[in-house]
Amino acid sequence: MVKDFSYIYSFPFIFAALCIFVVSQYTLARHKARGAWYLFFACLAASFWSLSEGMLYLDLNHGSKILLTKCQYFGIAPLLPLTLLFVLTVFGIRSRMIGFLRWVLFAIITLIIILVWTNPLHKLVFTGYYHIDTRAVDMLGLHHGLLWWIIIAYHYSLVVLISVILLKISYTASGFERAQALVMLAAVASVWAANAIYISGHSPVQNMDISPIALSLVAGSMAWGFFRHNLLDIFPVAKTEVFKEMDDAIIVFDERNRIVNFNTAAGAIIKTKVSEDIVKQTQQVFKKFPVLQRIIENMRRSEVPIRVDGQKNIYDVRVSKLLGRNGNTIGRIMALRDITARKRAIEAIL
Fold it and tell me: Residue 102: in which H helix or E strand, if any?
């Protein structure tokens, strides 16, 4: 017979698992986008971890809870490596190394799972199990071995690496890319802060790992990126290192004609502050340069004078559509080429 409180304790974990699974399906629908497969499998791993954690608080026998604890590592082991690969792929950091790194990480994932499932032979991950009666729900207690602490140290090293990458991006990037990096950083930090509470023995219920509940924040941040800013649509098309270093000024707009990113050359022209509020940022640019607003709305190529640093320059301005995987318009790219020197040379000849 299931205890009255067991469903209460299990529900937050099961609900979090459902939320993360929904995000995984949205990601699957955009599987052709860069990094989408990593995010899809990371969501599945997180969902499985949360679901199995919730099942631990049902009125199951001791053996079933030990089995569930082992099963959890099918979610725990790949979650952070997949998150790291997703971040590296989406933000285009050292993409040539990703292939080699992927095989190394997958080998470590496999090793961790094998060590957990062969624990009865060596008892290096868990040295023993015991029963905890919290009066509200029966809990499975674990005595941790040396390998468990090594696995924890490995996972936290990945957390640090992911955090450093996201911090660097949030410091050097512009527009939406910076905002998204900060949101992802906050989500990752929340999960592993919750995990630290569990490891330190300060969980609200003895031996309860609340990390999977915090994973719902990660799902929420991903959903925010998808629905509000087309995370997996715009950036695989527009965000590349070539984009950043082009001599032509490039401004990327979403489907609502809001600025979501711009390269270094464009930043020198529009001179707007990087802001997470893309509506405010767009309004500031269009107020300074109303001609750009007319061009992006009419989708017409134009030659326009723009004053930069007190000097009037002539720019050839072109607008192109950004198309998603289904051929639908997901944004626009505006390219501004400085043709001042060419214009002056023609005028001198004439």
Answer: helix 95-117
Q: With 0-12 CB in 10 A as exposed, 13-18 as middle and 19+ as buried, what is 329?
A: exposed
The pLDDT confidence band at residue 206, using thresholds 50, 70 and 90, is low
What residue has token string 């270094």?
264
Contact of 330 with 234, CB cutoff 8 Å: yes
The C-alpha atoms of residue 347 and residue 113 are separated, in whole angstroms, by 73
Q: Which CATH superfamily is domain 240-349 in?
A: PAS domain (3.30.450.20)
DSSP for 184-213 reads: HHHHHHHHHHHHHHHHTT--SSTT---HHH
Residue boundaries of the structural domains of the chain: 6-236, 240-349
CB 62 within 8 A of CB 128: no
Q: Given CA atoms 22, 28, 30, 34 in this order, what sign does their dihedral have?
A: positive
pTM of the model: 0.65
2-31 burial, b if ≥16 CB within 10 A, otherwise e?
eeeebeebbebbbebbebbbebbebbeebe
Average pLDDT over residues 16-27: 83
Starting from the edge strand earliest in sequence, which strands make up the sheet with 329-338, in order? 259-262, 249-254, 329-338, 311-323, 302-308
- Topology adopted by domain 6-236: Rhopdopsin 7-helix transmembrane proteins (1.20.1070)
Beta strand spans in 103-257 (E)? 126-133, 138-144, 249-254
pLDDT at 217: 64
Is there a contact between 305 and 313 (Cβ–Cβ < 8 Å)? yes
State the Cα angle at 194 between 189 and 200, rounded to 5°.
120
Helix (H) or strand (E) holding 49: helix 36-55
> How far apart are alpha carbons 234 and 228 in whole angstroms?
11
Do 6-236 and 240-349 share a fold? no
Q: Most distant CA pair in the chain: distance in Å?
A: 95
- Residue 76: is its pLDDT beyond 70? yes
If you ran DSSP here, which 8-state letter would residue 93 be given? S
Cα–Cα distance for residue pair 74/318, rounded to 1 Å: 50
